[in-house]
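FIELD: query
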Amino acid sequence: MIRLIVDSTSYITKEYAEANNITILPLTISLAGKEYLDTDVDKNDEFFELMRETGEYPKTSQPNMDLIMQTFKDVVSAGDEAIVLTISQTLSGTNNACCVVKNEVDTTDCISIVDSDSTGQTMFLYAMEVVEMIKTGHSRAQILDRLDHLKKESYIEFTPESLIYLKMGGRIGKINALLGSLLQIKPILCFKNGVLQCAKKAIGMRRAMADMIERIPAKVKKIFVLQTAKTNLFEEFKQKIKQLFKQAQIFEGQIGPAVGAHVGPAMGVACLVD
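FIELD: result
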C-alpha cells in the first residue's frame, strides 16, 4: 500500500484526510506566549488580532521530529510505501527534517520525500492527484513522475488586504508600507517553482481581484479559491471565478497561520492546469 503524508501547510481538510488515509504533520506557531497548530484555521481571526494588538511577529516551527520519526517507522514496519509531500524548502526546514529522519529509518527505500516547490492549496491539489493515482493502482514511480509534471503546471497567488503584515515580517520597509496603504496599492504575490515574487501591483482590492482572475489560464483544470481569515470581498471573488470557469473543478480553502502570518488577511487562488 502507498500512503500519502503531507505537512499542514497543504491545508488539507480533516474530512478529506480521514476519507483518504492521509497523515498530516502539523507545523506550530508561537505568538505572545500562545502556541497555535497550523491546522487550527478556525483560530485565524484570533491569531491575526493578537498580532495587531501585540505588534509581535510569530515564530514558526517545523513538525515535531519525534512525530515524523514515528510516522515513518509505522510505514516501514507495515511493509508499506509512502510519498511525503512538503512545503518548499525555500520557506521551511520541514523537507530537510523529513530527509534526515528518512535516512535514519528507511532501510528499504520505501519512502519518497517530495519538495512541492510551493505551499498552501497547491499542495492540496497535488494530494488530490496522488490520491486518485493510488486508487487506480499506479506505482510510486509513476506518481512521482506525475508530481514533477504538476509542479510545472500549477501556481498559487494571493493579495493582502493590508501591507502591515508584510512590514512586520520585514518583507517591505515602513515607508513602502505607508505609501502603499495611502495609495491603496495591492501586490499580487505569486509562488511558483520555489520562488515568491510580486507578479503585479494593483490599485485597490477589486482591481487586484480582476487581475488575479485575468491571470488564470483558460485551460485550468482545478481551482482553489482561498483566503486567510475573513476578507471583505471573498464571496464576490469566489462567485466571479465560478461564473467564468465553469469547466473547472472549483474548491474553497483557507490558509492557516504558518503561511498566513506572512501576509495577513488575504485572498487568492491556487490553480492546476494539467
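FIELD: remark
Confidence is low (pLDDT under 50) at residues 171-183.
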